[in-house]
Specification:
mainly alpha; two-stranded parallel sheet; two-stranded antiparallel sheet; 8 strands; globular; disordered N terminus
């Protein structure tokens, strides 16, 4: 094959399973695309997850919203990101890898800028903040297209490692965001162009400890700061990444590919917005659906809209990829990935505000003996000081999970971490019970954090093992869409965890949320054994 076949944005000849081709040509191209994919995905996670930190600081700055309303902002971002992963699952084969990663990375500029603008206005209505949280979902959608793309570049024997690196290092976007945002909020990094500061009415914090009430804070930098990395990164993706013609034979040129991406992403916003309108309480929505009805409704309607509104070659391409839904392993692995990634991103979203609400308050009974949860705890740990640790560990061990699974098999690793998560969830619930009934909840904070680190570690390892299993079971044409689909459904953990934990905190029983998660993990442990570990399973320890 001529050298021209491997130069420029489009590559016509791609044979990663051919050892000679891989060593002479493929490896260099694949790893270049991987190392550009990682920071792009990292920024996607940062934009998607930033409302978990922003809501904590909104509380510290005295924004006029209730705790449930603040939890709703985190949940909306989670739901939007999960829903946008559904069309993102199909983008690579419709529009090409380089085209998709560039444009979806550049799209992150809009929610970064918009969030910075709304955060300068405490007096603006709740729906303005909810709209920005919805728009931040673009960052969550990027994971599905990124993983689908990288899976096409590497041979099967390296799938666990390559996907583990992309996802694991990309997942560092959560930790990066949780460290960077508290830092940039302490600085006027954009001068007069960045807007005025606000004064903390409650103690805040960052990685090195507390920040006292009365300190000036530039909360808008939580959005604006990402412009500094997104602009150069978008340029690098455009000029440094590739489209594989063997994967996307009819992208139709760069502009046509961009139109397809924008069209499919726009389609996903419609059911997500409508579903949220039916779910959210007044004054933002109608409040006629509960979470467990709203989510499936959004998923099904998104798929239907995509199927009906796609046009031309895109319509045929999407129809072919819908074949994954006829395979039972698509559904079993979707549930298993909810255990792993769903837990990772859900806890990442919910943990900062949970720390603030559970440990930032002294829980004392009133004269009638009724427990009250309003008195400020002077010894409270700062969520912004500690919340980054769990996601950091989870992201750090994800490549390890992929590497171990390549050695010993993915399903046995998934089984082990599921058992750990059952036990750790029950233990966290018990510690929550103690803390939420104590006038000095800070005494339970270190066991609480240690157990959450166990949960993040187990979920991080399981992220790598589950994706390795998908790469083994499905062929190259279906592995990408399955990776995208499972990641989309699992990402609804970013919606479920803040809603469930927030609701149980409001009810005074936060431990019930964790006990419920433990029951789900136990059921999935049995599912994993049935499909992949019992003696006569179709695929043995894939």
């Amino acid at each position: 094959m001529t050298t021209q076949a491997h130069t420029g944005a489009d590559i016509a000849d791609w044979r990663p399973e051919d050892e000679q081709f891989w060593e002479s040509t493929g490896k260099k191209i694949a790893y270049r695309n991987l190392w550009l994919s990682v920071p792009a995905l990292l920024c996607g996670f940062a934009i998607w997850g930033m409302w978990g930190i922003i809501t904590v600081q909104m509380l510290n700055l005295g924004f006029p919203f209730t705790q449930p309303e603040l939890f709703s902002l985190t949940a909306i971002a989670g739901l939007a990101g999960a829903t946008m992963r559904i069309p993102a699952s199909f983008l690579i084969r419709v529009a090409g890898g380089r085209n998709t990663i560039f444009l979806t990375t550049a799209m992150l500029l809009a929610p970064a800028l918009g969030t910075g603008l709304v955060l300068q206005h405490k007096e603006w209505p709740l729906w303005a903040f909810q709209l920005m949280a919805l728009w931040s979902g673009v960052g969550g959608g990027n994971f599905a297209s990124s993983m689908s793309n990288i899976s096409t570049f590497f041979p099967k024997r390296l799938q666990g490692t390559a996907l583990g690196l992309n996802a694991g290092l990309g997942n560092f976007g959560v930790t990066t965001m949780q460290i960077v945002i508290p830092l940039v909020m302490t600085l006027s990094i954009f001068g007069g162009m960045g807007g005025d500061s606000m004064v903390l009415v409650k103690d805040s914090g960052w990685i090195f400890g507390k920040i006292a009430a009365g300190t000036p804070t530039w909360i808008q930098n939580a959005g604006f700061a990402w412009l500094l990395s997104l602009v150069p990164l978008s340029v690098l993706c455009f000029f440094g990444m590739n489209n594989l013609k063997t994967v996307t034979p009819d992208a139709g040129g760069t502009i046509a590919a961009f139109i397809k991406i924008i069209w499919l992403y726009t389609l996903s916003f419609v059911p997500a917005g409508l579903g949220l309108y039916l779910y959210l309480p007044a004054p933002t929505g109608l409040g006629v659906l509960n979470m467990w009805i709203a989510m499936p409704l959004i998923v099904v309607s998104t798929l239907m809209v995509m199927r009906l509104a796609a046009f031309g070659a895109m319509k045929d391409n999407i129809a072919k990829q819908f074949a994954i839904f006829r395979n039972k392993h698509t559904w079993s692995l979707t549930l298993l990935y909810i255990v792993t990634f769903g837990s990772f991103i859900g806890f990442s979203m919910a943990l900062p505000l949970s720390i603030t609400v559970i440990f930032g308050i002294s829980h004392v009974p009133d004269a009638a003996g009724v427990m009250q949860h309003t008195l400020k705890n002077p010894h409270a740990p700062s969520a912004l000081t500690y919340a980054w640790i769990g996601p950091f560990v989870g992201a750090l061990v994800r490549p390890v999970g992929g590497w171990i699974s390549d050695k010993v098999g993915g399903s046995i690793v998934t089984q082990a971490i599921s058992a750990v998560m059952v036990l750790a969830s029950v233990a966290v619930g018990y510690v929550m019970l103690l803390a939420y009934g104590s006038a000095t909840p800070e005494q339970y904070f270190m066991p609480f954090m240690a157990l959450f680190i166990v949960l993040f570690t187990a979920s991080g390892i399981g992220n790598g093992s589950t994706f390795r299993t998908i790469g083994v079971i499905f062929d190259r044409t279906q592995a990408g869409p399955v990776l995208g689909w499972t990641s989309a459904i699992a990402a609804y953990g970013a919606f479920i965890a803040p809603v469930v934990i927030g609701a149980q905190i409001k009810a005074g029983t936060p431990q019930i949320a964790m006990y419920g998660f433990a029951v789900f993990y136990a059921l999935c442990l049995v599912l994993n054994w049935w499909f992949y570990l019992r003696a006569d399973s179709e695929f043995k320890n894939p």
